[in-house]
Known about the structure:
globular; 11 helices; alpha+beta
Amino acid sequence: MERELRYDVVVAGGGSAGVAAAVGARRAGAGTLLLERSPYLGGQATHSLVPAYCGFCTNGENWTQVVKGVGQLVLDRLADMGRFDGFYTSPTGNLIARVDPEAAKLALDQLVEEEKVDCLLYAQVIRARSQGGKVLSLECVDDAGRFFVTADAFVDATGDANLAYLAGAPVEFHCDQTGSMMFRLGGVEPGTDLSPDAMQSAINAARDAGAEGFSATRGTAVPVPGCDDFLVNLISLKMPDIDARTLTAVEREGRRQARLYLETFKQRIPGLEHAFLVQTGPRAGFRESRRIIGEYTLTREDVKTSQKDPAGIARGGWGAEIHVDNDDPAFTLERGAKWFDIPIAALRPRGYQNLWCAGRTISSDLTASASIRVMGTGFATGHAAGVAAALSAGKEGYDTEAIRAELTRQGALI
């Protein structure tokens, strides 16, 4: 017997953008389904161990918070669990919200359940049926077989624009930036120097002694809230495709390097003599892959000039953090205390009526993408995409002012 589900809005992808989209759509009155192929929500914060929600704030002395709404609901839940006590200055000098992956999993579960969003984990979208620029239904698979989902509107928050790609919407593949394999270190003595300079000194000493196989010499280590563990962002990985063969090689290389860096640090950084590898991944982290070709493309100039737009539905406040080589990222455009608007048209694939996109897949050039791809901004674009999907479901076109008003009612900053 075929399983068939029907909703007002369906969101594919349960990372920051997807959770925000689902909660935003539900709060706007839409019957909402959230599909996630992993066994938990959180995206790169949980399955790639990215140690921080970046983009909630601008930076510098006169910083301000630019993302609230659903993102703030998540921070509040983490605070209630003792896992968020304010924004933290990272080793690169940026303001971030540190993330405990296990706390994030639970907080997101609780939020989605309490908001009465239907959620299916272990659900992989494998086909999208579309006609005349309109997505009609999705074919999904789980361990019990296939099932089908129809809806009036859809949100692609997959991180790789998988839904848009399967639906035939215009997308481009980009691999200018490297990915990363995060790893978590345990057994760190209190007071150990894990600064970028300390790591670089240890790695360079190992290389001078003949060690090989390092992909980078500088990185960052962020303490995990509530314990002495550190999450290390150092390994640099080329990701020329997202097919299974390519990603198999990427994952193997990432795990090899994690062991190499661990042994190097144990030998050469005081306080890490008894360190051990708690975990990697569980999967490599992506900075870019597919992006949609939208009704509007956010550009470097928009970011550089802190462009404000009357059709703005989210704020971007993160510097253009471009990882194109093996060491420190180039913050091509520092934001300081400034922020820019993300217009609603950047969330819509060109020629498609009922498909909205969020997170790093929105229409943007390289520099703009390097700014909006972070998870704090993902909460904001996801929230906007979910509200837009709910208010435009079953209709021709969309009402920007109505979407902005509903986002404001839900506590978003626009």
